[in-house]
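Figure 6 in text form: structure in, sequence out.
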């Protein structure tokens, strides 16, 4: 069964470019929290339960738009980054700003945590990945990818890999410490989003060339090319069980794919009225997407 369970329009005052979904807790005790970031300069925390969406908190502190949000694997903190060259760290219980990290002089296009939740990674327009300490906010490393603008970052669940997607269509792989950069060919245009499989054996890449690539982390080769979107693929994410993945596109649609057959299971053609910037999975076969139309959509996905 594939259905739109909840459509929340006008969730922000401007386009929503970023989303992440907390997946911590079990059964009736779990609280699903969704974090969204918008060009209206705000970060919002939402509670989603039984088809009901409630705004918990609106967080201020950015200028020039929020481009990326990420929840730490520990579930205790989350981060947001902006064109104002700053990264904000937030406490997940109190929603207080723990600290603001100056990532400039270049814009912080994407933000991600290392798997131990001890460091923040951000990509900028010179192609480097900057690594900051969560505890102190100080920059500890500048990781060289030798590529152009860094648009997307993902870390593997096993902590062994950092992947960075660039504006020139290449993906750089670094080890968990940020060393040994290795380029992966495959795209002809910017790589907007990345996602590792739950077992860390595969990497998904989404590009402006309208394609999704699947890379093996064993031999670093392309093992699948997925086509179907009619415009830029802006978001991609593996399901928690690793059997499916979802994609979002500037063609306004959200698609759900079967990993085993590489086939499209469902197309939400009318998901958004404008570009669909991101997708994120929650628990119990739930999926959400955000878009230029200021909407957050929640989907029920049951094969």
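Output sequence:
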């Amino acid at each position: 069964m594939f259905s739109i369970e909840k459509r929340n329009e006008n969730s922000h005052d401007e386009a929503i470019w970023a989303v992440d979904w907390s997946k911590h807790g079990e059964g009736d005790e779990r609280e699903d929290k969704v974090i969204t970031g918008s060009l209206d300069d705000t970060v919002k925390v939402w509670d989603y339960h039984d088809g009901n969406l409630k705004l918990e908190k609106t967080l201020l502190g950015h200028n020039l738009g929020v481009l990326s949000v990420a929840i730490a694997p520990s579930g205790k903190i989350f981060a947001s980054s902006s064109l104002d060259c700053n990264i904000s760290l937030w406490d997940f219980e109190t929603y207080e700003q723990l600290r603001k990290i100056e990532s400039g002089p270049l814009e912080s296009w994407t933000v991600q945590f290392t798997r131990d939740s001890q460091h923040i990674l951000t990509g900028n327009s010179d192609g480097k990945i900057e690594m900051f300490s969560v505890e102190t906010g100080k920059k500890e490393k500048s990781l060289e990818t030798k590529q152009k603008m860094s648009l997307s970052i993902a870390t593997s669940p096993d902590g062994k890999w950092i992947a960075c997607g660039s504006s020139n269509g290449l993906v750089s792989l670094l080890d968990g410490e940020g060393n040994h950069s290795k380029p992966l060919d495959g795209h002809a245009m910017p790589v907007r989003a990345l996602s590792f499989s739950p077992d860390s054996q595969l990497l998904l890449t989404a590009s402006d060339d309208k394609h999704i690539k699947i890379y093996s982390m064993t031999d670093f080769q392309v093992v699948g090319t997925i086509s179907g979107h009619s415009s830029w693929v802006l978001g991609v994410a593996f399901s928690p069980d690793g059997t499916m993945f979802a994609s979002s596109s500037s063609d306004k649609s959200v698609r759900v794919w079967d990993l085993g057959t590489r086939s499209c299971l469902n197309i939400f053609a009318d998901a958004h009225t404008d570009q669909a910037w991101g997708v994120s999975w929650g628990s119990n076969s739930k999926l959400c997407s955000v878009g230029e139309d200021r909407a957050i959509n929640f989907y029920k996905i049951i094969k």
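Caption detail: The CA atoms of residues 156 and 200 lie 5 Å apart.
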